[in-house]
Amino acid sequence: MFRERSGARLAAIVELYAEGQLQVFMRKTFPLEQAADAHREVEKGHGRGKVMLDVS
């Protein structure tokens, strides 16, 4: 089931996250310099969670 994207829905998600009621599972974090490796990780299609780029 797909739903429309809206600012109100995003605000509700942000609120859930701020209250600690929303969990985001991160599979692996890569520094920006390894963005190509991050893309290869995503292309594997295996595993649970998000692949993140650290731009700090």
How do the helices and strands line up, and which of them pair or pack?
Blueprint (H helix, E strand, L loop, with lengths): L6 H12 L7 E6 L3 H10 L5 E5 L2
Parallel strand pairs: 1-2
| C-alpha-based Rg, rounded | 14 Å
Q: What is the total tally of β strands?
A: 2
Quaternary structure type: single chain
Instruction: Record the strand order, biggest sheet.
Output: 1-2
Order of helices and strands: HEHE
What is the beta-strand fraction? 15-25%
Span from first to last CA? 35 Å
The biggest beta sheet reads: 2 strands, parallel
Helix content: 25-40%
Number of helices: 2
Task: Provide a descriptive summary of the structure in words.
With 56 residues, the chain is an alpha+beta fold. It contains two helices and two strands; from the N terminus they run H-E-H-E. It has a two-stranded parallel sheet.
What brief labels describe this structure?
about 55 residues, elongated, 2 helices, two-stranded parallel ribbon, alpha+beta, 2 strands
Write a brief caption for the model.
The protein has 56 residues and is an alpha+beta fold. Helices cover 39% and strands 20% of the residues.
